[in-house]
Amino acid sequence: MEKVHDPHELSDVDVGVVRARFGIAETGAIWLTQEDLVVNALAVLSQHLIVLLDPEQIVPDMHEAYRRVAPR
């Protein structure tokens, strides 16, 4: 992905694959950062997005998710 200079180059991507840092069981959401995506357009322009997520990195709710991204 580091070789993509223009997001328009991804306009015909059928399958995108990303690795999420963690997931939230309560909402079915995942946490992705700029470093995870590299090119933000991949998540939007891919016909199908495959998310790789370690099952050990699924937190139960948003309270725990916020603790991970903004520790006190």
Question: What can you tell me about this protein's structure?
Answer:
It is a single chain. With 72 residues, the chain is an alpha/beta fold. The chain has one domain (19-69). The protein is built from three helices and five strands; from the N terminus they run βββααββα. The chain has helices spanning 34-37, 41-45, 62-69; strands spanning 15-19, 22-24, 29-31, 48-52, 58-59. The strands form two sheets. Strands 3-2-5 form a three-stranded mixed sheet. The protein has a two-stranded parallel ribbon with strand order 1-4. β2 (22-24) and β3 (29-31) form a beta hairpin. It is elongated. The model has no long low-confidence stretch (mean pLDDT 87).
Core attributes:
72 residues; 5 strands; two-stranded parallel ribbon; elongated; alpha/beta
Give average pLDDT, whole number.
Answer: 87
* Count of distinct structural domains: 1
String of helices and strands:
EEEHHEEH
Proportion of helical residues? 10-25%
As a percent range, the share of strand residues is 25-35%
Find the structural class using helix and strand composition: alpha/beta
Gap from first CA to last CA: 34 Å
| Overall number of strands | 5
Which strand order spans the largest sheet, edge to edge or round the barrel? 3-2-5
**What is the number of helices?**
3
